[in-house]
Write a structure and sequence with these properties.
Length: 294
Amino acid sequence: MAGAIEAARLLAGYEFGNSVILAGLSGEEQGLWGGQHMAAVAREQGWDIVGVLNNDMIGNIEGVDGVIENNTFRVFSEPTPVTDTEAERRRYRVFGGEVDGPSRQLARYVAATADAYIANLEPIMIYRLDRFGRGGHHRPFNDQGFAAVRIMETHENYTRQHQNIRTENGIEYGDVVDGVDFDYAARMTAVNAAVLARLAWAPPAPAEVRIGGAVRPSTTLEWEAVDDPRLAGYKVYWRDTTAPQWQHSRWVGDATRHTLEGLVIDNYLFGVAAVGRDGNESVIAFPTAQIPRR
């Protein structure tokens, strides 16, 4: 909550094209009640959510494993939406994309933002909805089909979580202020503020991205035009199929179709981002359909 309040202070002086909502959600340990309620309201009222950043434990650098590390953090994300239809799941067999759902793209966006703007704080992508057998307030949003990730410290100290404050067998239990590293918490807050600002300044991601290139020495992408006055144009991205992050990009201007000559579609994964006049980019959109052969 201190991080959310500080992010609000950092962002309050700026004008954005999208809304930024900072919320405190209660009842997590009792069953993710706060997240379930807010996600249900968002679905019922038709909120157009770009992404949810769940910050759950961003102030500890001393792990129960004895490791002390203040220059990394984890981003947890589900691979594809649990709300996908069977037809959408079958699409992955043809297009790839088993690790390219909206939440995974949001996680990549968080990692890329940290790499670009936050010194000495390395993001670690965790290809998992959450920690093993555990949950957080991003999950109810995932359950409703929204892009959402968990941002947190790398090394947890379980003796400080869900414990009554006490000393037992020489071990100090409980969540107390002495266990908080405030410099680390500040940099984690800065990551969030930077991601929120970039997303709020950027135009929406392209919709209906389609791809083609079977048995050709080139790959073609096309997409629906983004109707937003902030739009300057688009970037096409690609990466090796085994690469966790987008590796290459090309500015293609204010076009809705582009062919990458010499790139065989079988060997890479592709996406498209909208770019604003101020340089801020949307989350990268992965292709969801094939370009009809002409």
